[in-house]
Design goal:
Helix 2 packs across helix 4 and helix 3 crosses helix 4. This protein is α+β, with helices and mostly antiparallel strands and 165 residues long.
Length: 165
């Protein structure tokens, strides 16, 4: 009987390892970042809006004419959880996080998207401090949120990918 329990434990362990490794690979993320699509800027804006909403963001700006989408800026704790009921001055360390998406229909065949995180960190009575792409204090969850939107857009437009040259 012990062999049966061991086999069940082994199967359970293998299943747990498989389930833990179900996230996107680095190659899938790179493909989504670099993808160009047979789509108009207005179509890409529509897909970006749908993807942001599916990821739980509210939309602040969606401008098909300019090829631009912005999520509503929201306050987060440094570890990435959303801060609730922030009114007036935010407590030290909170991060106001927003995603900005612009359509790139100039640099190659088809059109792509560029997604950037725009964020500031609350610092007491001082002006909020911007968090740039090269800032060493930039939280790791920024990249995960950006990657999730790239992947969502890519899933929606996979059939319209322009092959690389």
């Amino acid at each position: 009987m012990r062999a049966g329990r061991g086999a069940v434990a082994c199967v359970g362990l293998v299943l747990a390892l498989v389930l833990c490794g179900c996230g996107p690979s680095a190659a899938q993320i790179r493909t989504a970042h670099d993808a160009r699509y047979q789509a108009t800027p207005a179509e890409l804006v529509d897909v970006a809006v749908a993807t942001l909403r599916a990821e739980g963001y509210k939309i602040a700006v969606a401008d098909p004419a300019l090829g631009r989408v912005e999520s509503l800026a929201q306050w987060h704790h440094p570890e990435g959880t959303m801060a609730r009921n922030v009114r007036g001055r935010a407590e030290d360390g909170l991060i106001k996080f927003q995603l900005q998406i612009r359509v790139d229909d100039v640099t190659g065949p088809g059109a792509g998207v560029v997604i950037e995180a725009v964020a500031v960190r609350a610092r007491g009575e001082l002006q909020p401090q911007p968090i740039t792409a090269t800032d060493r204090s930039r939280p790791g969850w920024f990249a995960g949120r950006i990657d999730a939107v790239y992947l969502g857009i890519h899933r929606r437009l996979r059939a319209r990918v322009v092959p690389p040259r």
